[in-house]
Design a protein that fits this description.
With about 190 residues, the protein is α/β, with parallel strands linked by helices. The protein folds into 2 domains: about 1-30, no CATH class; about 35-185, Molybdenum Cofactor Biosythetic Enzyme, Chain A. It has helices spanning about 5-30, 50-65, 80-90, 110-115, 125-135, 165-185; strands at about 35-40, 65-75, 95-100, 120, 145-150, 155-160. It starts with 6 loop residues before the first helix and ends with a helix.
Length: about 190
């Protein structure tokens, strides 16, 4: 614990030190070069032609100077979710972004599969996502089981399949920390 005779000064110094650490991490992360991201749309109805989320994410990722290392549309079937996670975990990507299948209907299984496989969870992602979603959809935000964590050296995100939800997650949470997340998960 950081202790000083002046509590205010001690807290300010601690905040400064913590901030520097994050800034240093982000600086190192920004030097990694293009980061590979894999995209998974979980839907019983979408096709490549109707997958607005896939197109949006690809354009956003590439506009940031990164690359899409893999892309699939799968049905909301537990075996397919698990298989694509394992397949993409064997690639050079650092992040795997799932969208769809996070609700509470019987067909929504993405969260259930991923939550059993994640090695470390990032509870703050789901909490912040629901907080931002509340501003958009009110109390219905609690129906989202958005989640994130690590799996076999990758950072995995799972968001609802609505285009607005994907944009909120990307713009407010994932994109601002993309390089930092990729750097952290790759540290030895």
């Amino acid at each position: 614990m950081f202790v000083t005779s002046d509590t205010g000064t001690g807290l300010a110094r601690l905040a400064y030190l913590i901030g520097m650490s994050t800034a240093e991490h982000k600086d190192k992360a920004s030097q990694m070069g293009p980061i590979g991201v894999c995209l998974v749309t979980v839907s019983d109805t979408r096709t490549e032609e109707t997958d607005l989320n896939g197109r949006y994410l690809r354009a956003e990722i590439e506009s940031q100077g990164h690359r899409v290392d893999g892309y699939r549309i799968i049905k909301d079937e537990p075996q397919q979710v698990a298989q694509v996670l394992d397949d993409f975990a064997q690639t050079d990507c650092r992040l795997i972004l799932f969208n769809g299948g996070t609700g509470i209907s019987p067909r929504d299984t993405t969260y259930d599969v991923l939550s059993r496989k994640l090695e470390k969870t990032l509870p703050g992602f789901g909490e912040l996502f629901r907080m931002f979603s509340y501003d958009e959809v009110g109390a219905a935000a609690m129906l989202s089981r958005a989640t994130a964590g690590t799996y076999r050296g990758k950072v995995v995100f799972s968001t609802p399949g609505s285009t607005n939800a994907v944009k909120v997650a990307w713009e407010k949470l994932i994109c601002p920390e993309l390089e930092h997340l990729a750097w952290e998960v790759g540290r030895k």
